[in-house]
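[Meeting: bench + compute handoff]

Bench side (C.D.) handed over the final construct sequence. Compute side (W.E.) agreed to return the predicted structure before the next meeting so the bench team could plan truncations. Sequence as handed over:
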Amino acid sequence: MAGAQSVTPTDVLLVEMRGISKSFPGVRALDNVDFELRAGEVHCLLGENGAGKSTLIKILTGVYSPDAGEIRIQGQRIPHLTPHLAQQRGISAIYQDFDLVPSLSIAENVFLGREPLTAYGSVNRDEMRAQTRVLFEGLDIKVNPDALLSSVGVGLQQLTEIVKALSRNSKIVIMDEPTTSLNQVEVQRLFAAVRALKEQNIAVVYISHRMQEVFGIGDRATVLRDGRIVGTEELEELTTEDLVAMMVGRKLQERYYKEVVTPGDTVLELSDITTADYVVRGVSFRLRRGEILGVAGLRRSGFKEVLRVMAGVVPPKTGTVKINDKPVSLLTPRDAIEAGIGYLPEDRKTEGLVLSLAVKNNIVLPILPRLGRWGLTNAGREKETAGHYVRDLEIRTPSMYQETEFLSGGNQQKVIMAKWLASHSQVLLFDEPTQGIDVGAKIEMYKLIARFVREGGALVMVSSEIAELMSICDRILVMRDGKIAGEFEPGTTTEEQVLQVVASSTDTTHE
């Protein structure tokens, strides 16, 4: 936390939002909310999913107009804030889905639509490159401005978004879950960039569910719950438990949840698995019933790719997979489903769900042939099946006919879990299952995982949070250069020992 206080924020108020209220049909998203932002501070905006964070940010960026209240930017009241006006006033937002063009260079992305011109009206590429270098150097980063964005890692893409904001002379930068897709090396690089912004008296609104990050980079925190302000506090005066209690309205006695289950017979076995691109090379391991197996590593180490092999997304070039000691071919996701394997991908919105479909339809989608006859659907059985899992998993939704896109992140994860439970999956593959969900929803997910393995299932879990793997897994595999570099049992090792092996993994995302 000491690093977060190396630059002292000023008392200059860049943003004042007073009495902000906003309603949507049937929902009061914000109720008389006050929020202020000082120059040179990192102000963390916290709350469970559905607390009102996104609505408040969209009002500050001009996407939504408030029903009541006023907004002042650098002391001037702005009665009708629009996205264009917000940008003119120095407000930039960096969302989880980057607003970048992969086929263009870093410099072209930074100045897209605002390219410097020569006296003859053509794009001055030398000037564009030079300005890009200077902007990155202001964050203490050296970069090749001509590198295609598609050729660099997600960490450098994140930093390109920040530099793009700087090129617009932004005084306020909003970061929405900025570390979602970053490894630990990239997170530290991002934090260094945020501290460089503070040194330039730029204010950062930082939205995150990760308490360690909040205390590592933040100065103050404002907590929202059910659309109302719970409080704004200096972070140096709070503990993690204090913040969690503010967010959920109660103290959580545990941050993780695990039950002791005695593993049974081997249900899944990988032998010498190699992919065509050699990101996975010669991987072998076994998974037993009742077991939670964690997999860790850096990007391109193979730790996420091996999960996609088992899910039938990436067919193996060589090697064998066995389910219940019988060889299976996993050339497609359908093969994996029929083998009893369910997959919760990292990007639940594009790969795990059909957001435009109702909760009911998402739950029964993989098993529609089982619920009907002669190619015809059976609406009654679909409703009965989906209704059972909505109740059983306590999915919070107005009805099973609600479009899935309107559910919180935690409830979307539950819909995916319901889908695989309805499919009677023996093995679940979870890629970052608690990413982007609030602390209360995380505990619920851990309890669902514990119940699944207690009832005879087996689970493989990929996570970038080593503490999470240490807390709920029975074993942890660390991958390096496409191979298994180490195996650990949480009860007999430390987080630092696992991190040491993870950090030594090859990471070529910035090359």
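W.E. noted at the follow-up: Confidence is low (pLDDT under 50) at residues 1-5, 505-511. C.D. will use this when planning the next construct.
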